[in-house]
């Protein structure tokens, strides 16, 4: 019996030692390696992009002012160009205007879904109704816990009504889960100046379908450090009538049960400024 007790104590001590060593290694790696959190990216970005105060500024009557933003969006969207878009399309399938491209029935249907946030309309910048594209990144180590009405769990009281309504119309057990997104003026004055906002593609849920996200539960462990074979799905935010000549602060955030909203954090949250003259 004495030998068995000593053996058990040794095993327990070794197990504790291994846990301590693992914790120390994890702490060291956490200090050495950069912290990767779920990020909500905002596009287009200027050449002088500032993560803390990203600014989109242009003059409607000056093509030399808004055309660079049009070019930046084209540069960003070229990774999504295809003649065989998915259904529904994850992004505009062409960065060419109608008079520049060879029409493809599949792509034309996909572009109709993304209108007016397409090259044909200069993504709205020519008319002072700009489109801003959103995309999730740093998700390979993340397993989202989506909100839905298929589970008997309460929804946040501050969740926008349009998201709650879409949950009812497209229940997760039929249409799949979404990482929901909402945007609006960051402060009360911005809420007055931002004007109506529309999520594009119109008619689809304002969010990212989890089935298209390469999160930790959907990819092999060995693939987590590798780039995605396909760029992640997009959402476009259309500013229908932003107040001219006023700097507008805009905040966008994702809604999942595992990410708590914190205005001082960038986890699952993005902010930018828009100034239309």
TrEMBL record:
<keyword id="KW-0812">Transmembrane</keyword>
<dbReference type="GO" id="GO:1990573">
    <property type="term" value="P:potassium ion import across plasma membrane"/>
</dbReference>
<dbReference type="InterPro" id="IPR038702">
    <property type="entry name" value="Na/K_ATPase_sub_beta_sf"/>
</dbReference>
<dbReference type="GO" id="GO:0005890">
    <property type="term" value="C:sodium:potassium-exchanging ATPase complex"/>
</dbReference>
<keyword id="KW-0735">Signal-anchor</keyword>
<dbReference type="Pfam" id="PF00287">
    <property type="entry name" value="Na_K-ATPase"/>
</dbReference>
<dbReference type="GO" id="GO:0006883">
    <property type="term" value="P:intracellular sodium ion homeostasis"/>
</dbReference>
<protein>
    <submittedName>
        <fullName>Sodium/potassium-transporting ATPase subunit beta-2</fullName>
    </submittedName>
</protein>
<keyword id="KW-1133">Transmembrane helix</keyword>
<keyword id="KW-0472">Membrane</keyword>
<comment type="similarity">
    <text>Belongs to the X(+)/potassium ATPases subunit beta family.</text>
</comment>
<dbReference type="GO" id="GO:0036376">
    <property type="term" value="P:sodium ion export across plasma membrane"/>
</dbReference>
<feature type="transmembrane region" description="Helical">
    <location>
        <begin position="12"/>
        <end position="35"/>
    </location>
</feature>
<dbReference type="InterPro" id="IPR000402">
    <property type="entry name" value="Na/K_ATPase_sub_beta"/>
</dbReference>
<dbReference type="GO" id="GO:0030007">
    <property type="term" value="P:intracellular potassium ion homeostasis"/>
</dbReference>
<dbReference type="GO" id="GO:0001671">
    <property type="term" value="F:ATPase activator activity"/>
</dbReference>
């Amino acid at each position: 019996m004495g030998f068995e007790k000593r053996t058990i104590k040794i095993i327990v001590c070794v197990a504790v030692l291994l846990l301590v060593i693992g914790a120390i290694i994890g702490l060291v790696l956490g200090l050495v390696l950069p912290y990767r959190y779920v990020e909500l990216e905002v596009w287009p970005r200027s050449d002088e992009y500032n993560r803390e105060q990203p600014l989109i500024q242009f003059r409607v009557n000056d093509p030399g002012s808004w055309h660079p933003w049009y070019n930046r969006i084209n540069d960003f969207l070229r990774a999504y160009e295809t003649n065989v878009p998915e259904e529904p399309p994850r992004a505009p399938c062409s960065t060419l205007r109608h008079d520049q491209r060879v029409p493809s029935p599949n792509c034309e249907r996909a572009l109709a879904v993304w209108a007016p946030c397409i090259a044909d309309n200069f993504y709205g910048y020519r008319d002072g109704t700009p489109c801003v594209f959103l995309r999730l990144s740093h998700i390979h180590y993340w397993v989202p816990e989506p909100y839905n009405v298929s589970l008997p769990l309460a929804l946040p009281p501050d969740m926008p009504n349009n998201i709650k309504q879409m949950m009812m119309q497209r229940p997760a057990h039929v249409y799949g889960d979404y990482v929901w997104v909402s945007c609006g003026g960051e402060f009360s004055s911005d809420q007055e100046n931002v004007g109506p906002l529309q999520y594009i593609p119109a008619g689809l849920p304002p969010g990212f379908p989890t089935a298209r996200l390469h999160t930790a539960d959907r990819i092999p462990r060995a693939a987590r450090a590798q780039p995605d074979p396909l760029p992640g799905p997009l959402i476009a935010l259309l500013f229908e009538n932003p107040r001219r000549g006023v700097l507008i602060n805009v905040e966008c955030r994702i809604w999942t049960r595992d990410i708590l909203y914190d205005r001082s954090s960038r986890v699952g949250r993005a902010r930018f400024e828009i100034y239309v003259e």
